[in-house]
Write the structure tokens for this entry.
Amino acid sequence: MMMRATTVATLLVLTLHATREAAANKIVFKVQGFVKMCTLYKYPKNVQAYATNRLKQWRMKIADLNNLCEDFKILTKKWRKVPDVATLTLIRLLRHEAKVLEHKYQTLAEAAPLAGSLSAQEAGTMDEAAGIFYAATKSGGGGKCCLEQNSSISKVDTATDLTGCITEESAPVAAAADTPAVEVKPSDITTKWTGGQITNAVGTGSDCLLTQTDGNGGYIDTNWMASGIKWAGGLLQFRNSQLTGNTWTGTSTSLTSIPVLNAAAQQLTTISTKWHHASAAIDNLLKLKEPTEQTFTDIDTNEKVLNPRGQDKALKVTKEQLEQIRKK
């Protein structure tokens, strides 16, 4: 009798569990619902690459400025006469600009590793979320999937719609080492998303593999997607009622609820003040190393700029003088 009671209880539990599992198999997600995440985390992936690219450019300019300075020093010695004021001013200015840019270089070099690592950590949480849903879709048999095409019940067959997120082999898309030429700005990851970008993420199919419950309740309860389940470091929060409402956390108002994104945003705000440097003056000077005629702009500076202990005295090198010096 005891055994029969135990058997009945076990069957009852299994029946209830099966019912619960069946009830959970409701939701898949439109690929377009992941476009926001793909758009967002391509920026932190480029932080380290952009900083590295900027450092390489600055290193080359510092070397060019110093080389020009040394070349003119050697040249003035060959003249065996006191150089004119314009040439002396130019030599001092080359040395000054090289030192200023060297300081900028060191400051950025110190900030880049932390900013890059935190940004990569943030992107990694999104890589993981995209990878899980994509892998579940690729592995789903019998129509079971987690990601579907925009307006159909068919599951995703290739990674085409996840460009920038994950490849067909379920490998995350990495940033190129030195290609980003566009500056990554804090607003790129803190801008509030519009309603159209944070709603209607639910698809029309069913049987998403990730909605399967295990003996302990698994990911999901009987209300399809339980409120409070978060992915991608808290950026993506699945709710009940078929994911309607504020499915995606609004980044501009809820950064503190997404620790990895908040840390990346703070570091990006810090580093974005360090990778700016006015290049017009330096670019004007670097024309001196060109072998052909150049179009220069006048240089207006001050003795106190080149020598903080010097007197307040205006210094000028005209564009005509620059061209004459270049010819030497």
